[in-house]
């Protein structure tokens, strides 16, 4: 891998390291909010969870859904708690007690050091209701909805700048699913209302729910033909799971890369069609490993344990490959949300009344969020490949991010080879006198090992001795099935 300081691919948007909390399962209730917990603060928020979210350095949190969004009336979640309705949530067959709504979530997000990516309901919701939510959140005062926010204890507007116009509206599972033309028209009219209320906001239109949808990428083209001038981003969602072949699973990042490039091409086709000078960027606002085949059905409970996947070392390595791919596509992908954050397919896992632990995927997310900010460099890479269901995959997935202000360089390296150690020859000559300052590795003998409440640190990165001396050219040993973070400083 040859890295040249001045060959900059992109400057990472901080929102690349965002996440997602949906009113789903135990994400909110007994995830972030558990008033009876010994570590709950005065508002009932778990302080242990807040500390972990802070440690992860999450930029925005997409809220409140997800599939839940398409049946949600945001007005149920404001005002005095004792008069809020309990509602059926048809998306997940649960009961929503509405104890947490936008006002409480804004309070929580401030404590957790994150911003919010808002979302408006394009299922049962109307463009008018979307405008009212925005007025409630962002208008300073002197109108019905903004004054109601003040009356509810929040004198200052929330200033939520990034909004999703619906969620996965192409999916037949979605409440009030629409076809591409109907969604395109509804999204366009909603976007007009929203931008008239606050011209500083940025909007995300729903792209295909996954690249596996039969309507992909036609859905994306048609939606954008209706909304191109009104929206700023098109969404991508994709989850990966192990279908029984570890090698294919490990190469998931190859598929994600292809998906991103295909959507970018579709967007640019519409740009050409419209003779537009504007570029619509991408918001990969749901990505993760998710064992969808293992889902169980629940019937009308409050906060049942839905989608509580437990992640192995292998899952964390696949996850790291997806993270590298987002970094390397950050010229086009400006926003990305790890779906989700707490309990529901999440890096943070809580026990009701008990501790909160870090799942294996916590660590690669923390690494990219901490060290993946700055300028992504365009390296020259020569790596052996292996054959997978996605075609030839490089055995080493790599990314280099330059932190100009602190004169540091981070190299991320994933070895997906199941048996072979590989030597990474790094050529960093353009950085002059450069020294390795830290070296961290996530690996292990048992790829299926997971963290749990009895052994919460089974999967945890280890710090290794950095290579000594000046390192314009160094050779590094990369063990099989390992995720590595090398940090350098130059004078
Ligand atoms: O993240 C879980 C679910 O996955 C979300 O609710 C939905 O948008 C997607 O299908």
Helix/strand layout:
Layout lengths: L7 E4 L6 E3 L26 H10 L3 E3 L24 E3 L4 E3 L5 H11 L2 E6 L6 H12 L5 H8 L10 E4 L14 H18 L4 E4 L12 H10 L5 E8 L5 H5 L1 H22 L7 E9 L23 H16 L4 E7 L8 E3 L5 E3 L3 H10 L3 E3 L7 E4 L2 E4 L1 E8 L4 E8 L6 E6 L6 E9 L19 E3 L8 E6 L3 E9 L1
Helix pairs in contact: 3-4, 3-5, 5-6, 6-8, 8-9, 9-10
The protein binds alpha-L-arabinofuranose.
The site of alpha-L-arabinofuranose (AHR) has 9 residues, from loops.
Care to describe what's here?
This protein has 491 residues and is of the alpha/beta class. It has two domains: 361 residues, TIM Barrel (Alpha-Beta Barrel), CATH 3.20.20.80; 106 residues, Sandwich (Immunoglobulin-like). It contains ten helices and 23 strands. Strands 2-3-6-7-8-9-10-11 form an eight-stranded parallel barrel, surrounded by six helices. It has a seven-stranded antiparallel beta sheet with strand order 1-14-17-18-23-20-21, covered by helices on one side. A two-stranded antiparallel sheet has the order 4-5. A hairpin with a 2-residue loop joins strand 15 and strand 16. Helix 6 packs parallel to helix 8 and helix 8 packs parallel to helix 9. The longest helix has 22 residues.
